[in-house]
Amino acid sequence: MTEQPEPRNHFGEGARFLLTAAAFVIVILGLQAARSVLLPIMMAGFLAIISYSITKLLSRYLHFPHWLAVAATVIVDGGILFGVGSIIKFLAADMKATLQGDFLTRMVEKYNELMHWLGNFGLEEQARALVSSPKDLFDIQQMVSVVQAISGQAISFVTTCTLVLVLMTFMLGEARLFKRNLHRLPNSTKGKEDFTVALQGIQRYLLIKTIASATTGALAWLACELKGVPFAFLWGVVAYVLNYIPTIGSIVAAIPPIIMALLMGGWGDAAIITVCYIGINFAIGNGIEPIFLGKQFGIATSVVLLAVLFWGWVWGPCGMLLAVPIMVLIKLALENSPDLSWAATIISDEPPPHVQKLELNKK
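Now predict its structure.
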């Protein structure tokens, strides 16, 4: 008897793609549904990675017992978190009073000045057709509601921070155990080496990003303070926090102080604050950070930007903060997957292997 050829599965690849896409959608919906549970865990890991250097410093150089080093680290982080929360709550209440005062009157004055200036070029009618009133750009009542909501979230913020700090305490306390267990894996395990390198890269990235963000916040605060922009310290804190978000964060952080400088000062003050923010972000974002970070993870810039938008949609502002570390772990998982390694190659910003060899030979 002649052997019958095995039937070919014409729908194998198509069904595989559909199953992968369906699984992806289910995972994303699950991440959104479990946001209240997963976010504190992710934020605790985020803080633990940043703070582990402090714990290691206290243990190695000041000879603190490990439990005391962990406790000191958690106390420092807790003081910073609750201190920032208290300052924001206080300044939000002050800002609410400002918005309910002569804020709208000043907006109308600047709007009329702008329309008069555009009239010199014959563009006033077109501009008024686009924006007939300052209320079309800013709804004061909505802004007051947002500020009031921020001020009223103090209890929720304290509860969340407490949970994050408790989780971070356990993570820092067991960091040495986790590291020891990782080294117990077989030396031939490629995933172990990749994970160690990725984790060290994330730690270095977050540490340098924290220093760069603190410098950005301090310089932004100084610029606003020198020009007399209201709530200068608040804009410094905002610049510090949002600088963790690549590209988008620095742009968003500059908008409120520029508007405040315009309304409380004038067009000249707004222009100066704009130049200051551009100079600060250019010097740090395009000068200092690349020197110390370089191409830290080999992920294309456009992919990082899309990741920020995507995780912002999934988990809100906290997702934007965590976008880069999450993408590093995703890229690592893709590289170690035989079926999905091609995706890691697509999002990579690293040169091909033969180019890397040529560069090494030149060195």
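Residues 190-226 form the longest helix (37 residues).
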